Amino acid sequence: MILVDTTVWIDHLNDVGTPEVIWLRDTIVHRRALLLVGDLILCEVLQGLSSEREATQVEQALRRLQVVPLVSPDIAIRSAANYRALRRRGITVRKTIDMLIGTWCIEHQHALLHTDRDFDHLERHLGLNVIHP
Description:
Blueprint: E1 2-4, H1 6-13, H2 19-30, E2 35-38, H3 39-47, H4 52-62, E3 66-68, H5 73-88, H6 96-108, E4 111-113, H7 118-126
Parallel strand pairs: 1-2, 1-4, 2-3
Helix pairs in contact: 1-2, 5-6, 6-7
């Protein structure tokens, strides 16, 4: 299973042809993998839209995929530990949500499709499985 990050959904909605967006679209059309939408990712995507009409359309489209909760007490605690482990290496991840998303993927052994450089640290140092189109 593959969790698709906000960065890729935003590029997809803005019709930006990154390798990740091309991979995402191909995977949706050919059903090559089970794609997941995290609840926090759903929130980030929807809050960035300018109209209620657009938000409703995007929500309906994303809900066709499996929406999963990303935060629990265990994930919150593990995410904080991962943050501290990276910080000891001199690495500071800019967003708490990215730590939660990455930790959820690590703990559930799911891959992540993204275009956010903060996840590179989680891949390199914590074993995050990343899709590289």
